[in-house]
Amino acid sequence: MTGPRHILIEPGAPGDMAGPGWRRITARGTSMGTGWHLIAWTAPGLPDPAPLVAAACAETVALFSPWAADSALSRFNTAPPGWHRLPGPLMALLRDSLRICDLTGGALDPTLGRLADLWGFGPSGPVAAAPDATELRDARAASGRARLRIEGDHAFQPGGLWLDFGGIAKGWAVERAAQHLVAAGLRVHMVEIGGEVAARGLSPDGQPWWIDIEAPPTCRDDATRHLAALHGMALAGSGHWRRRAGPGAGWSHTLDPVTGQPGGGAVLSAHVFHRRAALADAWATALMVLPPQQGLALARAQDLPALLTLPDGARVGTCLQEWEDAA
């Protein structure tokens, strides 16, 4: 490989710093069909951080998993028509998702659960072939932002509407894990779940958390690779250069809300920085669906640091000038 790697350093003053004699702890686990990774600096008297991350993952499953029949999400999806009270975290994330849905023209739409399932990305499991026109029409008719109403802590189930938080739930899990860690006094940590990352504080020698922004195979040299230094931000990425083997191997997990089909390949990957991991995750998902220039313009309007990888391996970003200047 040739050429310099791009360095991005989170702007702003760092917060907490691990003290002399603090111990570095590393832990790993699995949940939600993926892995999680934790590194934390801990002082004497502070609790083991690993169970806190595991607890956040368990909360995420209990609230948002379409595969767990007793999750809050599954209960709403199978509920009879009428108004139903949703748990606070589920309603809050639904409102976050709907706000981004409205801002992006549906590029992130939490009401497409039936379509996601139809393409093999839901509780029914992988499918052997693409759905036919009738199946697609019926699933689209049962889906859509216009079918959902919310008031206070209640959502109206019109019958057959499936919510899906696949584009934001892992980010929420990271965010929740970080909240647990901070509440326990573990204020210097990096937690990653399924590729979504939140990092806080500095090591005893004053170093931030260095995160390599994953690049697809088309990025063949260091000139297109990026390394980010974080001390309080979250980083989420979405991409579809990795495709599973078997039926549906060429399908993106991101759905085009207009066609109801997996999105195309105008963006190979999207990475977003945000104070909240859930919103970083949601925006990264949305930017995978939008045309590159439209997505970048929207990110710029939202003052959202973002980096897109195009099919030819080129990387284009917005709102990253402060990050580059800090380097």
From TrEMBL:
Gene3D superfamilies: ApbE-like domains. Magnesium. Can also use manganese. Mg(2+) binds at G167, D281, T285. SUPFAM superfamilies: ApbE-like. Its EC number is 2.7.1.180. Its cofactor is Mg(2+); Mn(2+). The keyword Transmembrane does not apply. Keywords: FAD, Flavoprotein, Magnesium, Metal-binding, Transferase. The keyword Protein biosynthesis does not apply. Belongs to the ApbE family. This is FAD:protein FMN transferase. It comes from Pseudooceanicola sediminis.
